[in-house]
Design a protein that fits this description.
alpha/beta; three-stranded parallel sheet; 9 helices
């Protein structure tokens, strides 16, 4: 069983529903507020954002993923795209307080050490690691020190690599959740690999 704030999550509990907001606020706080409101209305337990410092996580020429190229023809690389859609730490402080008032759990995936430390400082209850950071040992080690539940995603890891991540992280079961993910957008049913959930 994992406890997030006052919610207990186990095989016998109802599903813990996370609304993936990510960067779909397009860098605007007013959009983020609307998405939080919609998630609350729809019965979600939690909303998840992404917190990052582009200068710490990306080279200036990092290419866009194929699915990003379709809708972002004017953006030539990942750094420019993410800078456009980023929120400041002050924005996240405000959104965390807004979520507290709305009684919906605030969560955000940190992509660098500074962001992880910041999120812990403002009272984030659970950490979600991007599957692209499954081999980011400094980041994983820092987040483990917070002694809060961690969600690991399989998305960009094969079975052997993910097994190594679990062993190296060496975290108790009551603080670890594994999220089945296929990093392919949009995801078609024949690529969903839902059978791997049982193995996980």
């Amino acid at each position: 069983m994992i406890k997030v704030d006052k919610i207990k999550i186990s095989q016998n509990s109802k599903s813990f529903l996370i609304a993936e907001i990510g960067i779909n606020h397009n860098g605007k706080v007013k959009n983020a507020i609307k998405l939080i409101d919609k998630a609350k209305e729809a019965g979600f337990d939690c909303v998840k954002f992404q917190t990052y410092n582009t200068s710490l996580m990306l080279k200036s020429n990092t290419p866009l993923a194929d699915y990003q190229k379709i809708n972002n023809k004017k953006k030539s690389n990942m750094k420019l795209l993410l800078e456009k859609y980023s929120l400041s730490y002050d924005d996240f402080i405000f959104l965390k307080q807004y979520c507290d008032n709305k009684k919906i759990i605030f969560m955000s995936t940190p992509f660098d050490l500074d962001s992880a430390i910041f999120l812990n400082k403002i009272g984030v209850k659970i950490f979600k690691i991007s599957s692209g950071d499954n081999d980011n040992i400094p980041l994983l080690s820092q987040i483990k020190k917070f002694k809060k539940p961690i969600i690991l995603s399989t998305g960009m890891s094969d079975a052997n690599k993910f097994d190594q991540v679990i062993k190296s992280l060496n975290i108790k079961r009551n603080r670890l959740a594994i999220l089945h993910c296929v990093s392919n957008y949009p995801l078609y049913l024949n690529n969903s690999m839902l059978g791997s959930i049982q193995k996980l």
